[in-house]
């Protein structure tokens, strides 16, 4: 729970209000509050991604205060956030008051969700007090939520002198900078906010997001920890910690935090199944990987609309099945993936690998050619090279990685990959050429170990060692 003793101001009031509400409901007692407090409480639950409770509060409030505009607006936002645009439109079009700034902002939000930017801007231009801080913040966050940080800054810039020291103003500007990828500018603003309110989970999380984008994963984890000191149910912080640990190569810790986020209803179970399955694949635990991916497939297949995750799930499950010796079903899964998303290279890349491992090189290369038709980029060639490397098809790995180098000479890690390959292929000239280009050229100890493996017959162990080196260098 939120550590109430660390909160101040409205945050503390809402935490106390939430506790009072839950006690009243558990004891089946009446809970009367004014409409504004109930609208704020519904929003509070919504920001915590507890949408069931947020809807419950909004509907409870509307029973006490029928046709209250503030509650109806919050109710509409909850439907918008849940992707139920038709229901949100019904509420917005029947608001009893349509001329308030709040009513115009929620209507503009709906218009933007329908791609009607010009109409939204015209509507917002009719707001009378464009310099009121509450109006500026509401409009700015509306634009930011809909992916228009530049439009948000257009509202913020004219009132900068007046509100530059206001916490609400600094917060929305910091979030806009983050939205524009301007982490260098956002970080000092989040630190300024933390100085003002050191126990705000959202400010610490804002700082964590910036550090994550700058690949400062340890600092991002620290910032998430501070967010969780204030609110141990701040689910986004658990997701972010999961992402950080995954980037640091600690898949076990990543899974732990993803599961905590799942318990708080931020991540769907199929995400965790998918992540666990892909982790098992990376460890070569094909049976366990397939078991988890099949769970994710079953959940996604049960949805009314075809999930965009299914093609990737089918393809990777196909790889597992191939490793388990179930070749026919493996190809069936790859074909399912290709049928669902014929322009996605992933299923062609994986089926190409399966064919090559089966010894059918022509079919494998044809599948990789299809992947390149879908995405004729360095990334695709790199994937082909990595698949070839993992299965010991070193001559084709060389072709693929050289093509990456031609398309993008500065492609991350390409010099390291080519260095490893050319040493393995006993090509001293090219080995020296690419080793000199590495960010961290190989030292004598690494070279001796690789040489010993090359002199043995264990190509699988060699390939594994090469992959480990690549991961370390990345």
Automatic annotation (TrEMBL):
The keyword Protein biosynthesis does not apply. InterPro entries: TPR-like_helical_dom_sf, TPR_rpt. PROSITE patterns: TPR. Transmembrane segments: none annotated. The keyword Glycosyltransferase does not apply. Keywords: TPR repeat. It comes from the Bacteria. TPR repeats lie at residues 235-268, 270-303, 311-344, 345-378. This is Tetratricopeptide repeat protein. It comes from Bacteroides stercorirosoris. The lineage of its organism: Bacteria, Pseudomonadati, Bacteroidota, Bacteroidia, Bacteroidales.
